């Protein structure tokens, strides 16, 4: 056999690299963020365990704000269009993303869904993520604000058990406040636990069913929409 | 939980990084896995062997290096190791979410074997 190279058999070559495995997702997320900025739309990513009340919160929020704001919703679920149907009953645009088993939404799914929404005049786009406190934490969807819901029935020890999610969260909503008298749950304890993981989390406590705390949450949303439009207006002025 | 999609992303990243003829000589892929990345390192290596089975990377193995969480404390101007997800400086009790490392999910080393004569003459 003829010798083809001078190198000994089994010589190893080492490539030192730094290749992020979520680079593709983060790149698309930035594209979404910049498009939402151009369109002056506030983008919120709602995450929580299954059954924490994401859809109920959206129904109640839309009911209270639809005369003042134009709202659109992207719903993520493994199967069925049930959530989108519930939201459409409130008279706003809602599109269902069916992930067929994928445990989280990725930026690419949002990008694919976007051309199917009419963004004319929209102020807020809510993304309701798949109910899961683990995987959605790693996937930036281009949102301005990440909102994590913790319902009273889940227990006040959740933030430390799912730290990645709470580290990337801006707002924590304690939901189902009307059930508080019936469960061993402390709002102060959950807030303290969340602040030990991430001191910057802002907290609200509310009941979408009975309406407690909804006004404070809705007013905060109105403020954020105004902030975003002011920021883009001043930018236009500078141009 | 999403180890399969992460492994697919590893394969796609390798395909982009390496030239075609190099791919079959990859022997080891080293990945830094931060504790906060929500990925189980052992499962990742195991899943990698299935995902690469019918690809040109089937002769390679995945080696994971776990990265502990380190955060920066602004008042102390130093870094501290975060234990039990308590993001509070042990020296001065100031909360800090400034993560220095522990979020990583990236390939940091690819080891290729120079082709042996037998392989070249195949």
Model description:
The complex is a heterodimer of chains A (239) and B (122). By secondary structure, chain A is of the alpha/beta class. Helix content of chain A is 36%, strand content 21%. Chain A has helices spanning 23-38, 54-65, 82-88, 107-113, 158-161, 163-167, 187-197, 214-238, and strands spanning 12-20, 42-48, 71-77, 93-98, 124-128, 145-151, 171-175, 202-205. The model of chain A has no long low-confidence stretch (mean pLDDT 92). By secondary structure, chain B is α+β, with helices and mostly antiparallel strands. In chain B, the strands form two sheets. A three-stranded mixed sheet of chain B has the order 2-1-6. In chain B, α1 (3-17) packs across α2. The radius of gyration of chain B is 19 Å and the shape is elongated. The interface between A and B is large, with 41 and 39 residues. β1 of chain A pairs antiparallel with β6 (105-113) of chain B, so a sheet runs across the interface.
Percent helix of chain A, as a range, is 25-40%
Largest interface: A-B, 41 and 39 residues
Order of helices and strands of chain B: HEHEEEEEH
Please give the count of helices of chain B.
3
Features:
heterodimer; A: 239 residues; alpha/beta; seven-stranded parallel sheet; 8 helices; 21% strand; B: 122 residues; alpha+beta; three-stranded antiparallel sheet; 6 strands
